[in-house]
Amino acid sequence: MPSQGRRVGVDVGSVRVGVAESDPDGILATPVTTLARDESPEHADLAALAALVRDRDATCVYVGLPLQLSGVSGESARQARAYAAELAALVAPVRVRLVDERLTSVASHRLLHDSGRAERTHRAVVDQVAAVLILKSALEAERATGSQPGELVSTGGRKPRTKGRA
């Protein structure tokens, strides 16, 4: 069975990053925040996410991998892999795993619509809802298989970035 402890779910978008967390027993997945993507050299979103992982003593981070319906990796999947690799270097030794997130954005919008939320207000929370769905799916797979699902992201021997170092 996977180790106890909080797990973090991450939905990486081109503009925003949705974040969710589990309880220590891995039963519930709840929304935490939405971070603005920062493509500058500071990568403030990655730094904030790494701090959140540390502050919550997370034992694993599940990053959604947006494969195409056919299962093929496209540009979005490449970007998610790159983001996950950067995050893995920052939060090591906490494991970062990529999990299939096909259709989570569609499901997130549907959940928000079904809850009566106006479509114009979806943008503020849809990434968090997607992160919850990613994490919920991973937690269900943990319970079903007794192991952590997805593809383990290697840090590639990279050291975490620090200020003043590129």
From TrEMBL:
Membrane spanning stretches: none
EC number: 3.1.-.-
Gene3D superfamilies tied to this protein: YqgF/RNase H-like domain (3.30.420.140)
Keyword annotations from UniProtKB, A to Z: Cytoplasm, Hydrolase, Nuclease, Ribosome biogenesis
Chief location: cytoplasm
Region (Disordered): 145-166
Localization in the cell: Cytoplasm
Gene Ontology, cellular component aspect: cytosol
GO molecular function per UniProt: hydrolase activity, acting on ester bonds; nuclease activity
GO biological process: rRNA 5'-end processing
Residue ranges of every copy of the YqgF/RNase H-like domain listed in the record: 5-108
InterPro entries from the UniProt entry: RNaseH-like_sf, YqgF, YqgF/RNaseH-like_dom, YqgF/RNaseH-like_dom_sf
Function of the protein: Could be a nuclease involved in processing of the 5'-end of pre-16S rRNA.
Assigned protein family: Belongs to the YqgF HJR family.
Name of the protein in its database record: Putative pre-16S rRNA nuclease
Source organism of this protein record: Candidatus Phosphoribacter hodrii
